[in-house]
Amino acid sequence: MKDRIRIALAGNPNVGKSTIFNALTGSNQHIANWPGVTVEKKSGTTRLGKTEIEIVDLPGTYSLTAYSIDEVVARDYIIEEKPDVVIHVIDATNFERNLYLTTQLMELGVPLVIALNMSDEAEKNGTLINRTLIKKYFEIPAVRTVGSKGEGLDELLRAALTEAETSPHHEHAIGYGDEIERHIAAIVAVLEKDPNLASRYPPRWLAIRLLEGDDNAQDKIQKSTITAAADAILASIDTEKTEAAMADRRYEVIAALLPQVCTTCVKEMNASDIIDRVVTDRWLGIPIFLALMWAAFELTFAVATPFMSAIDAVMGSCASYVAGSGMEPAWLASLLGDGIIGGLGSVLIFIPNIFILLFILSLLEDSGYLARAAFVMDRLMYAIGLPGKSFIPMLIGFGCNVPAILGTRTIEDKNDRLITILINPFMSCGARLPVYVLLAGAFFPTNAGTVVFVLYVLGIAIAIGSAYLFRKTILPGKPAPFLMEMPPYRFPTAGTAIRHMWDRGEMYIRKAGGIILAGAFIVWVLATFPWGAEYGSAESYAGMIGHLLEPLVAPLGFDWKIAVALLFGFIAKEIVVGSLGVLYGTGEDESSLTGALLADPSLGPVAAFALMAFVLLYMPCVATLAVIRKETGSWKWTGFSVAYGIIVAYLVAFVIVRAGPLILGGI
Amino acid sequence: MASLTKRIVAGIFGILYLTFGVTETLSGLVPGIAEQTAAFMIPADIMGGLVLCVVAAVYLAALYRFGTGAGSGQAYLYVAMALSVIFGTVALLSLVAQGTDLLVFGEEPWSPIALLVPMVWLAILPAAGISVWKSRFPGHMAGE
């Protein structure tokens, strides 16, 4: 019996590895930062009889494909450090999913023991896994464990000890079919010509990794004498296609073995599987997603209309009452009527739109569909150089960019995360909706929902294009493939959706009472003074500022009033509408503002669309800038976000203004 | 649902959605067509037409899978019917809301006939189909 052995605990995340680790090592554990990596691995010791056992808890990983740092750490530890035994901790309640990692560990050729953890829960659910048959078919000992109760841990250690002393080990090989096996044999033959390489890494395993296009494996052969020969073989092979074929083969092996060892694990397809077949379809997935998003905006626009009319009528009555009350001094009446009620009313009127959109997004999220949306977008995201994970913060950005940028913390790679942060302000948040509703309703009355949808798609397209540009220039790298668990579909409840809607929407109301009110007050002051100047006229301070800025926006077809509104939109995008109300002298009355905009000779459908695109793209609001600064830790990137947004907005608006009349026949 | 019935449902609805989808899209794109299609209660709506085409594609994908025996045809049919109902509901709610706004705050007359756009009435049979067949779908689909 050996005096000392080393055991590595490997497994998917959340399978109870740490629970087993803690139960086995007790207070002996310590956490160490291992050299060269940023991910923590834990190690501790225990004893079984006279044998001292060092146990290393590896990062949770779904595969050993080494796309992420966790996978590299786990795999390299097993390969480089060569533990005496690897215990693969499996969640017995989710046996099938865990087996993919099992097949990869088997291919590594390391001594392996399976811990069927959470067996009590699995048995309660009616899952019966035959350990004797696992030993027979997989040639790996399997032990029933319940880490939380300490059940089966002594048996697990004994099995590991026995395995450590068993020699020689049978090497497990999955047959990948004639064509791939020919490639493997050719690469193995080359690898075996370098004794140093062959002694460090199992040649078949390394050949498989190289065939799968594994960059980490490529690095391993770079300083070898056989690099050129291996590269020559690999150059003639489509590694992406081979990787998919090999993954399929592993799943076939799992599908063949699963019914042998666990008859109750073979589940009939449920409703979620059935829906997923279609909504994640290679060709139909993205069109279905776009169609559902269109439905969300169509519904948002249409259903909100009567509510908007009601708010408009109430606020109009209030303003008329204040204006007609003969209140003295006159400036106070103007402040209350034009400034406060006008500014607030022009923002509050859009609450129905925002809340309905948030309600629909909550329904989509609660139903489980948004997770599928991220999945179907993964291929596109990967093509532009971003991980699929980035799409989730982008979706959150439809509500508000602030939590969306905070949500990028789940992205491990620094450059992936930075790109996701920088493109997030292009996702059209709820604050921009009032501008669209006003202008699309005025200039595109019969297709307002479609115009709003097009703007959201424009935001996504600009975000994707920018990500591609950043990846190719200032933030190079390769994204990690997306791996996420799909939550089951469920019927969303109105109560939950309303709660989510309120959680996200109340911020808008608070903003209306705070920063937007303050913004409206500032705009009123600038539009009113110097005292004696006509309210909102060119002689007011607002007019002077506007005329100063007008040359900058004139090429876009915008006049000084729009320049001022855009300037105040820096604080919060909602202020753009309130500012327009003040500057057009219509205050809170949405229908009057619509009429004033339509009567403005400098504005037509093309200029209105250009203005909406400019508001969509031109720069993040103050709150978003603050969170960009916090999350990037850099003023440089914050400044870059502002400058890039303004340049992109200017270019897009310019193209719309110049090309629009050609397309729309001069309207 | 017998296999032949499923194929017929997928085929008929695929063609109907495609026909109305293309017509709505063309009405929105080509000047002059809208006046003629309006007589048949088909709106000139580019995006609405494209959405009908997406639903048509799912029905036709179901038909294709039934034909090749590749399996999952029923899954596509079930989702296509669900999409019909979702988009039909969206269109109905939108039109009701517009009607309410016109009746309460507007000055133009409004008639419930305006609700009879293809996206709404095409959803009626799929809605009935889902309610009748919903208990039978999942079990059958897995076995295909």
SSE sequence of chain B, one letter per element: HHHHHHH
- Give the number of DSSP strands of chain B: 0
Number of distinct helices of chain B: 7
Number of domains of chain A: 3
Mean pLDDT of chain B, to the nearest integer, reads: 85
The coarse overall form of chain B would be: globular
The number of E-state strands of chain A comes to 7
Name the assembly state: heterodimer
Helical/strand content category of chain B: mainly alpha
Strand content of chain B: under 5%
DSSP helix fraction of chain A: 55-70%
Structural features, described:
The complex is a heterodimer of chains A (667) and B (144). By secondary structure, chain A is of the alpha/beta class. Chain A folds into three domains: 4-165, Rossmann fold, CATH 3.40.50.300; 178-267, Orthogonal Bundle (Helix Hairpins); 287-478 and 496-664, no CATH class. Chain A is 63% helix and 6% strand. Chain A is built from 31 helices and seven strands. Chain A has a seven-stranded mixed β-sheet, with helices on both faces. In chain A, a hairpin with a 2-residue loop joins β3 and β4. In chain A, 49% of the residues are buried. Residues 28-39 of chain A have low confidence and may be disordered. In chain B, α1 packs antiparallel against α3 (46-68), α3 runs antiparallel to α4 (73-104) and α4 (73-104) crosses α6 (124-133). Chain B has one domain. The longest helix of chain B is centred in the middle third of the chain and has 32 residues, at 73-104. Residues 139-144 of chain B have low confidence and may be disordered. Chain B has seven helices and no strands. Chain B is mostly helical and 144 residues long. Chain B has helices at 3-29, 33-38, 46-68, 73-104, 118-121, 124-133, 137-142. The chains are: A alpha/beta (667), B mainly alpha (144). The A-B interface holds A 268-271, 273-275, 277-279, 281, 284, 287-288, 290-292, 294-295, 298-299, 301-306, 309-310, 313, 447, 449-450, 453 and B 45-48, 50-51, 54-55, 57-58, 61, 72, 75-76, 78-80, 82-83, 86-87, 90-91, 93-95, 97-98, 100-101, 104-105, 137-139, 141-142.
